[in-house]
Amino acid sequence: MFPSLGVTDPHRYSILEQTKGGIHEPTREERLETLEAKQGTLEHTLQGVHRSLGILTNVGLKKEMYDREMAENMTMLLGMVSEQQREGREAKTRQERLEAQIASLDTRLASVEQGIATIVKMLGKGTP
Questions:
Q1: For residues 2 and 22, is the Cβ–Cβ distance under 8 A?
Q2: Are 15 and 34 in contact (CB under 8 A)?
Q3: Is residue 15's pLDDT more than 80?
Q4: What's the rounded mean pLDDT across residues 79-106?
Q5: Which end of the chain is more exposed for a tag (fewer CB within 10 A), N or C?
Q6: How confident is the model at residue 2 (pLDDT cuts 50, 70, 90)?
Q7: Is residue 83 within 8 Å of residue 91, measured between CB atoms?
Q8: What is the rounded distance in angstroms from the CA atom of residue 102 to the CA atom of residue 110?
Q9: Higher-scoring residue by pLDDT: 113, 23
């Protein structure tokens, strides 16, 4: 830009203007106007940053709420699974008990049938 004057920053170049005879340094009023314009731009940018920060904060709060809700749902699901496992074990125990009772009844029924068969034989031999 103006390395001979030590001005290499493009932002500072906007303060200096070239004239036919050389370099003109702006007046105090011109510098103040430039500063006010940059301040307006910075305020506008800062407002955008604040809006973005508000949005990010809102997103963060929603994510936190979602995470908490997910944790609650997982706790409920674990409780339901645990209850179903307990009920499954109880059903298996009842089934085993019923199978044992059925086997016992089958044995007793076979014994009764054998006794009836014996009685029928005895009756059949005694009848002429």
A1: no
A2: yes
A3: no
A4: 96
A5: C
A6: very low
A7: no
A8: 12
A9: 113
Pair of tokens at residue 76 = 């409920």
Q: Which residue has the tokens 């940053």?
A: 49
Q: How far is CA 116 from the centre of its chain?
A: 70
CA atoms within 13 A on the CB side of 124: 6
List CB contacts of 104: < 8 A, sequence separation 6 or more. none
pTM, 2 dp: 0.45
Exposure pattern of 2-31 as b/e (b: 16+ CB <10 Å)?
eeeeeeeeeeeeeeeeeeeeeeeeeeeeee
Single-letter amino acid code for the residue at 52: S
Given the structure tokens 């002429």, which residue do they identify? Answer: 128
CA atoms of 23 and 8, how far apart (whole Å)? 14
